[in-house]
Amino acid sequence: MLGVEDLGYSYGAVAAVRRLSLTVNEGEIVALLGPNGAGKSTALRAISGMRRASSGRVTFAGQRVERWSSDRIARLGMALVPEGRGIFPELTVDENLRMGGYTVEAGVLPERIAEVGGVFPILAERSGQPAGTLSGGEQQQLAIARALLARPRLLVLDEMSLGLAPLVVADLYQTVRAINRSGTAVLLVEQQVALALEVADRVYFIERGEVTMNGPAERFRSAGTVTRAYLGDSAGEASSGGDDDEPTLERVNVPLRSRHTRALQRLAQERGVSVGEVVAGAIEKYLDALERR
Length: 293
What we know:
By secondary structure, the protein is of the alpha/beta class. It folds into 2 domains: 2-226, 3-Layer(aba) Sandwich (Rossmann fold); 258-292. It has helices at residues 40-48, 70-76, 93-100, 109-119, 121-125, 136-148, 166-181, 193-199, 217-220, 224-230, 258-271, 275-292, and strands spanning 2-11, 14-24, 29-33, 55-60, 63-64, 78-81, 154-158, 185-189, 202-207, 210-216. The chain has a 6-stranded mixed β-sheet with strand order 6-7-8-3-9-10, sandwiched between helices. A hairpin with a 2-residue loop joins strand 4 (55-60) and strand 5 (63-64). The longest helix has 18 residues, at 275-292.
C-alpha cells in the first residue's frame, strides 16, 4: 500500500531525514520509533505531503505521490493526525469534524459524523462544545475522528500519547486496534516504545534520520539492545558493579518549555546528532565542572 524509498528531507543545509525506506502493507500497524530529534515527525510530514521531500520516492495506493500536495494525497486515502492534534479550539466539536470532512460529499457527511460518534461516543455527547474546552484525551479523540471521516486506507498517527495520562493512552490504543481490525492500515510515531511494540506488527527504528533496525515487532519486545537504547535500564543493572567510566543509558523525563524544546531540536540538527546526545553532553560537562570545584 505504502512504499517509501530513500526518502530525504533537509532544513536548509541540515539533513533531517536521510535515505529512509519503509513499507506499510494492507491491514498492518507499522511503528516508526526513535529518540527525540531523530526525524520521525519530519518523515511523516514528507510522506503525507505536508513537506516536500528533498529526494526519494513515495508510492501510495499504486501512485507516485512524493510531489503531490497533502490534500491530493488525502483524497487518495491517507489521513494524518499531527503531533499536537491540530484541532481548532474556538470551534465546536461538530465544526471541527466538518472541517475535516472537506473530502466527503455534503450529503454523506452527517452519516460519517454519526459513524465516528459511534467510535468516540463522548464526541457525540459534546458536539456543541468548543473543542478547546475538551480534555487532552478528548481532543486526541477528536483529531482521530476528524481523520476517520474520509474512511482512509492509511491512518498516520504522530505522537498520539504526547502529554496524556497512561490510562487515556491505553484506551486510545485499544481504539486504534479496533480501527485497524476494521481494515484501516496504521503508520504511527510513538515515544512510548514498549507500548508501540505491543500494538505494532512491524517496527522501524530511526536515528539521525536513518533507519538503524527494522523487523517484526515481536522480535524486539524482549531485545535488550532496544530496551537499553530506547527505554533505559529500568532495573538499574547497567549501573551496578561496573566501571564508573562506562557509559550507561537511562531514561529521564525532563519538563521543558516549548521554546527550549525547539532550541534543542535546532541544536541537534546543526550538530547532526540526536536531542538525547545534546542533553547528555551538556549533563556530562556540568558534572565534570562540579567535580573540578
